[in-house]
Amino acid sequence: MGASQTRSESVYQELMDKTGFSLEQIKNLKKRFLHLSGNEETISRENLDAIPALANNPIRKQIIEAFFDKRNQRSSEVGHLEEIGFEQFVMVMSHFRPPALRTSVEEREVMRKEKLQFLFNMHDTDNDGVITLVEYRKVVEELLSKSGAIGHEAARAIADAAMLEVASTNVPDMAPDDFYEGITFEHFEQILKGLEMESRMHIRFLDVDTSTMRCGKSTS
């Protein structure tokens, strides 16, 4: 019992150091993790797919897949996991942690870059470092066509036009016959340069609002 508790405390401290979450926040995330997993040690895609609040989200698949993407574990590994444990769950959730009042300008910039990388990874589904037209079409089509307000072909046309505009902005000297390979992360940063990401990108579909979590407050 004592050894197990000591290990848990060690794991929690390590997660605090890596993510910036407080001890109470991590304990609250642990409660939510156990609720989602049915008190199992790992969570599968099926566990997340069963969340009612996520059912009608047009990019549900991308959000769920992000939890199993090794690139979102703050490591150099690529590929996808079949299931994730609590530590991996917390690492993904940390991408949605808003900055604290004491966060420095340098820390905010690092946080912003990590959030942008997370969003980029959601679109770059084949891990090649480029969001291709095919990948971009898929996201835009799902976002627009599933709303019921626009058809599949119209959504596809909008995606194509948007990608063409991005290409003309990022490669202004591109000849008419040149092929635009797609959006790199550097292009992605430029596209979203004026968007404040640090505090707006938070998550509520797990019944854990990372924008309002406070030490000692249960989120279950």
TrEMBL record:
It comes from the Eukaryota. GO terms for molecular function: calcium ion binding. GO terms for cellular component: cytoplasm; nucleus; ruffle membrane. The keyword Ribonucleoprotein does not apply. Keywords: Calcium, Cell membrane, Cell projection, Cytoplasm, Lipoprotein, Membrane, Metal-binding, Myristate, Nucleus. It is found in: Cell projection, Ruffle membrane; Cytoplasm; Nucleus. Residues 111-146 form the EF-hand domain. Belongs to the calcineurin regulatory subunit family. CHP subfamily. PANTHER family: CALCINEURIN B HOMOLOGOUS PROTEIN 3 (PTHR46823). This is Calcineurin B-likeous protein 3.
